[in-house]
Write a structure and sequence with these properties.
Radius of gyration: 22 Å
Distance between the termini: 59 Å
Helix content: 25-40%
Number of strands: 12
Bound molecules: pyridoxal-5'-phosphate
Number of helices: 14
Structural class: alpha/beta
Strand order of the largest sheet: 1-7-6-5-4-2-3
Shape: globular
Order of helices and strands: HHHEHEHEHEHEHEEHHHEHEHEEEH
């Protein structure tokens, strides 16, 4: 079968306009509950709560349109959506462990994934080992008889360390364990891990998928069987669902997904080529940048990188780092990324907080996210700020 083009997925797939007055844009079916004409209809519907509309904690027509598009984007049979990326990650991991089980996870995962593994799951007798996933041999060595989950994040969202995804998927398959990957950084536009043998793909859809910094959302993509199991247990029990209104906003955000990704990606590359030549820049972290230690692997498994990169600057003191940050006018200070607005995330903010250890990353490390502004406008701002 010929592959459905991306535009068809984003503009038409999952939409059935004759069911809602032939409206071009799908309405928000803002209803918690759905009624049945006959006992027989009800009896048939309750056989499958994921595929029928009975109650909005399980399924809702507005949310279903989004799920169909997301599954197609990740080339997966099924997709589930959650109230946050963290909710999706928790459901995927909790759904595949029981007391006594063990998880192998890449080192320094997203902060709340780290918290799930180090604080939450140990209360229920689930243990973990963090490994440097840049070498698949470290993963293989960490697997024990009681390991049930391999958790990857490639690239991560700060230093962009990668894992060889097909090699890791093969290790998981060989040992009969479930492989899960956080694909938020590359997004389905630039990387499709299911095609490389991964079982479950996780997204913080808050970032690129929604893309407008107005919805918090999580996504799981995978086989029908694996996701039906998570739906029947973690999704329905913990109930961290996406509202119909938010789902509709994300469907709207997805209409321009390729345009946004390409704009962020090309602007980031332009800004990086400016920074590469700048004498005050000592190191650039971006998977496709020259000198990135895993560039070859990145080119093999990703089609692009998007707008997120980090730099180390040649500075003598934390005061200089603060002054550089204060000179920036066109980058907003914030966590997160993936929206229309360019951001800067300065590690120096995390230094000398009473009662907390200093970060592993140096204070002269800055993460930038390039949004949809004119890249030359942003370069102009960097040019005046990189001046000491
Ligand atoms: C933001 C983020 C998450 C968490 O997603 P939320 O939608 O904020 O819950 C998970 N992983 C990565 C890589 C992220 O950047």
């Amino acid at each position: 079968m010929k592959e459905i083009p991306l535009s068809e997925i984003l503009i038409h797939l999952g939409e059935n306009r004759s069911r809602y007055f032939n409206a071009v844009s799908p309405p928000v079916i803002q209803s918690s509950n759905f009624v049945f004409d006959t006992l027989e209809d009800f009896r048939m519907a309750i056989r499958n709560e994921l595929e029928n509309t009975i109650y909005t904690r399980g399924n809702n027509p507005t949310v279903e349109i989004l799920r169909k598009k997301l599954a197609a984007l990740e080339k997966a049979e099924e997709a589930l959506v959650f109230a946050s990326g963290s909710g999706a990650i928790s459901a995927a991991i909790i759904g595949n462990v029981k007391a006594g089980d063990h998880i192998v996870c890449v080192q320094s995962p997203y902060s709340w994934t780290y918290s799930l593994l180090t604080k939450f799951l140990p209360r229920f007798g689930v243990t973990h080992t963090f490994v440097d996933g840049r070498d698949p041999a470290n993963i293989e060595k960490a697997i024990r008889p009681e390991t049930t989950v391999l958790y990857l994040e490639s690239p991560n969202s700060l230093t962009f360390d990668l894992q060889d995804i097909p090699a890791c998927a093969a290790i998981a398959q060989k040992h009969g364990i479930v492989s899960i990957i956080d694909n938020s950084y590359a997004s389905p536009y630039y990387q499709n891990p299911i095609e490389m043998g991964i079982d479950i793909v996780v997204h913080s859809g808050t970032k690129y998928l929604n893309g407008h910094s107005d919805v918090v959302l999580g996504v799981l993509c995978g086989s029908k069987a694996m996701l039906q199991k998570i739906f029947d247990s973690e999704l329905m029990t913990l109930g961290a669902i996406l509202s119909p209104h938010d789902a509709n906003l994300v469907t709207r955000g997805l209409r321009t997904f390729p345009l946004r990704m390409e704009r962020s990606d090309s602007s980031a590359r332009k800004i990086i080529s400016y920074l590469e030549k700048h004498p005050k820049v000592s190191k650039i972290y971006y998977p496709f940048a020259d000198g990135f230690p895993q560039k070859e692997l990145a080119l093999r498994q990703m089609r692009g990188c998007g707008g997120l990169f980090s730099v180390e600057l040649k500075m003598e003191s934390i005061d200089q780092a603060e002054a550089f940050f204060n000179r920036l006018q066109r980058f907003l200070l914030a966590v997160s990324w993936g929206g229309h607005e360019s951001l800067v995330f300065p590690t120096c903010a995390f230094y000398d907080i009473p009662g907390k250890p200093n970060p592993i990353l140096p204070w002269y490390f800055f993460r930038f996210y390039i949004g949809l502004e004119d890249p030359d406008w942003l370069i102009e701002d960097l040019e005046q700020a990189l001046n000491w």
